[in-house]
Design brief:
The complex is a heterodimer of chains A (about 100) and B (about 675). Chain A is mainly alpha-helical and about 100 residues long. In chain A, about 75% of the residues lie in helices and about 0% in strands. Chain A has 3 helices and no strands. Chain B is about 70% helix and about 5% strand. Classes of the chains: A mainly alpha (about 100), B mainly alpha (about 675).
Chain lengths: ~100, ~675
């Protein structure tokens, strides 16, 4: 199958993710959209890896997953902390450094 | 030990004294600082005598020795700055006079300043002052000369402002420093004019090269010499740069003695004598010097007649005597000018020391109006005043008689318009006797004043209940920065009496080194330095005897006149003053020189300063330069600040747009 299809799907998912980050205000959903963007990149990496026939791209994809897992841990922790302090779960409301 | 080694040690001793006193100033007990300082200068004087002795062992043709310790900078094109001293008869005469008289002044100060809270600081400054002057006279190139010249100005500033909580003293110090810096500028610029053609800073080499590179009377050498004269006038208090000298009387009396007798005002005379090979190529500059000297000696004499401050009378007499010396060395009477410099150092130091003793007896008051009849209270001081006064007036056989007449004789021998200077000189001599003995008669004769009575009847010194500044009556205390609580008179302090006795002896017999037709020691001694002088004078024997008789007659007549006006017929002085009211006003206001300089220089300067502060700085600097650049930054930041909204989604959007933009750019590039 042509590499173009993989890239097209990857670009589509990336655009959906980016659009979600820009449009949605709930931090949970923004985190989900970020995951979409990262996985779109993973898809492109694996597609290229297959095209060149070597494993470098797959290694990159694994690393991206690890980083994504870390990021979700921190992000969810932040959201839980906000919830506990009864702060609004809305990124537009959180625009100043001091809580 | 060679002559040059001894000369280096002449310099080293006062420097070491200054460093020792300065480093240990708060550990030295009692009067130790004074004795250390005196010893340092005494050692310097001993080495000066050794230098003299060693120099005399050379044949007369080889008495111009130089010695270089190290090279400060040598960068080609003739810029050769070396730590070089020049030892020749002229500089050796100067170091002997400077170190000798300074030793006695230090000795005097040991007692005079006792009780002052700044005692150690005073002697550190005093040693530095002497070191600077010795450096000036021993300098073997223009660089060291300028360094010494500037050091002397700085030291005089520190000492004139020694009582630094007195506002009058600090402003006098500033005035002296500013005028001296003006002289420094003249000296430096003059050096440039000469250096441009001779391509060396070395004095001896410059003098050798000068006749070959300068045409006689050419523009550059005349300009250079005139600028050197500016330096000499500022340092030697010649018109119109003299106004700092009377104000410098705010310093302690030994400082006045030092400035006037040994270390400062004679520097200008020395400079002209030292630069004589250059001045002979610039006759116009010499004429300017001679005329200014003659004017100064007359004008200072007339102001001295009207001044009522004891120390200022002596200060104006110094100006007048320096006028004789400047006139002398400018017309080519080098030996005579230096002879007068030497005798003047003796009797002027003596007069100032006696004045210090007198002022102590008056509890710090310097006004002649308050003094009278102190003769019985201060017999020794009176004796010193009389000896100094007779020498200053030029009564035979005191030292001043021979030295003043030898200058005027040389001037007359030049002929032509120099006869006007000759007449001015004898007119000045009459004025000298008049103001000197006016001062002495008013202070010592007549009914005893309360201060004198207290000393005679109760045997203790008058002390004012509250110490005040004699210049403006401000109340003071006796802590550091003001004069100490002790007043010391020569009758009760052995060091002071010893110094004054020695100087009195020198003031009487100092003329012995050059008595016409009898002794020619000074002429022989200085001959190697001035042998190449082209300015010669051949007065006839008749003129010589006429001058001697005229000098004696004028000096005696002036004393007699002073006696008649101020002692025999006391009503005469106010009557003459009232009759010649415009003249008296002119003299009392010091010929309005202060006002003239104030109007011509100080006020325009102050106006310009205010303009710079209020208009230039506020509008151009603060408004345009600083305001412009800060405004630019502020406007730029206001523009960018709007994007820092804190809304996460905007940041994310901008980031996306940015990355997309960069990606697009590279896509289009490939």
């Amino acid at each position: 199958m042509n590499i173009g299809w993989y890239l097209a799907v990857s670009a589509l998912i990336f655009a959906i993710g980016a659009g979600g980050v820009l449009v949605r205000r709930n931090p949970l959903v923004i985190l989900l959209c970020l995951e979409l963007m990262l996985n779109a990149a993973n898809l492109a990496l694996i597609g290229f890896s297959r095209m060149w026939g070597n494993g470098d791209g797959q290694v990159f994809a694994l690393i991206v997953m690890v980083v994504a897992a870390c990021e979700v841990t921190v992000g969810l922790g932040l959201i839980v902390a906000m919830h506990r302090r009864r702060l609004p779960i809305d990124v537009d409301e959180m625009r100043e450094l001091q809580g | 030990m060679s002559a040059t080694t001894a000369a280096w040690l002449v310099l080293a001793a006062p420097l070491a004294g200054m460093i020792v006193i300065g480093a240990l100033f708060n550990r030295l007990p009692g009067r130790a600082a004074g004795w250390v300082g005196t010893a340092a200068i005494a050692v310097s004087f001993v080495f000066a005598l050794i230098t003299l002795w060693k120099l005399q062992q050379h044949t007369p043709g080889h008495r111009e020795l130089t010695s270089t310790l190290w090279t400060i900078a040598n960068i080609g094109q003739g810029v050769d700055a070396r730590a070089t001293i020049l030892v020749d008869p002229l500089s050796v005469l100067m170091i002997c006079v400077v170190a000798g008289v300074s030793t006695l002044i230090h000795l005097y100060s040991v007692s005079y300043l006792q009780g002052d809270r700044g005692y150690s600081r005073f002697f550190a400054y005093l040693n530095f002052f002497v070191f600077s002057m010795l450096l000036l006279v021993l300098a073997g190139n223009f660089i060291l000369l300028i360094v010494g010249w500037a050091f002397v100005g700085a030291a005089s500033y520190m000492l004139i402002s020694f009582w630094y909580r007195r506002t009058t003293a600090t402003s006098a110090g500033i005035k002296a420093f500013v005028i001296n810096v003006l002289g420094d500028i003249g000296l430096v610029l003059g050096t440039f004019f000469i250096f441009r053609h001779t391509h060396t800073f070395d004095l001896v080499a410059s003098f050798r090269a000068a006749p070959h590179v300068f045409a006689s009377g050419s523009g550059d050498v005349t300009a250079g010499c005139l600028l050197l004269l500016v330096g000499a006038f500022a340092k030697s208090a010649q018109i119109p740069l003299h106004t700092w000298l009377p104000d410098a009387m705010e310093g302690p009396t030994p400082v006045s003695a030092l400035i006037h007798a040994a270390t400062m005002v004679t520097a200008g005379v020395y400079l002209i004598a030292r630069m004589h090979p250059l001045f002979q190529l610039a006759p116009a500059a010499g004429d300017v010097g001679a005329i200014v000297g003659a004017l100064t000696l007359l004008i200072a004499g007339t102001i001295g007649l009207a001044a009522t401050d004891l120390k200022r009378v002596i200060a104006y007499s110094t100006m007048s005597q320096i006028g004789y010396m400047i006139m002398g060395v400018s017309v080519g009477a080098y030996t005579a000018g230096l002879f007068h410099l030497m005798t003047h150092a003796f009797f002027k130091a003596l007069l100032f020391m006696a004045a210090g003793s007198l002022i102590s007896a008056m509890g710090g008051n310097q006004s002649l109006n308050a003094m009278s009849g102190l003769r019985r209270a201060l017999p020794f001081t009176f004796f010193c005043f009389i000896v100094g006064g007779l020498a200053l007036t030029g009564v035979p056989p005191f030292s001043g008689f021979f030295s003043k007449d030898s200058i005027l004789l040389f001037v007359a021998g030049r002929g032509g318009w120099h006869w006007a200077l000759y007449v001015a000189g004898y007119l000045g001599a009459f004025l000298t006797g008049l103001y000197t003995f006016r001062m002495i008669f008013r202070a010592f004769l007549g009914e005893p004043c309360p201060e004198a009575l207290e000393l005679i009847e109760h045997g203790h010194l008058f002390h004012p209940a509250v110490p005040t500044n004699p210049a403006n009556g401000e109340v003071e205390d006796t802590d550091v920065g003001f004069p100490g609580p002790d007043h010391v008179i020569a009758e009760r302090a052995i060091p002071m009496r010893a110094a004054m006795s020695l100087l009195a002896l020198l003031a009487i017999v100092g003329g012995i080194v050059s008595i016409p037709k009898t002794t020619t020691w000074l002429d022989h001694f200085l001959a190697p330095t001035f042998a190449d002088s082209t300015l010669t004078s051949h007065p006839s024997n008749g003129l010589l005897y006429f001058g001697l008789i005229l000098g004696a007659v004028i000096s005696l007549a002036s004393i007699a006149t002073a006696y008649v006006i101020w002692v025999a017929r006391p009503a005469l002085a106010p009557a003459i003053a009232a009759r010649a009211r415009p003249l008296t006003t002119l003299f009392e206001n010091k010929w309005y020189f202060d006002e003239l300089i104030d109007a011509l220089v100080v006020r325009p300067g102050a106006w310009f300063g205010r303009f710079a502060q209020n208009t230039f700085e506020r509008v151009i600097v603060n408004g345009l330069l600083i305001g412009g650049s800060t405004g630019l930054v502020r406007a730029g930041s206001a523009l960018v600040r709007g994007t820092q909204s804190g809304i996460l989604r905007v940041y994310a959007g901008l980031m996306l747009v940015g990355i997309a933009g960069v990606g697009l750019y590279f896509l289009l590039q490939s």
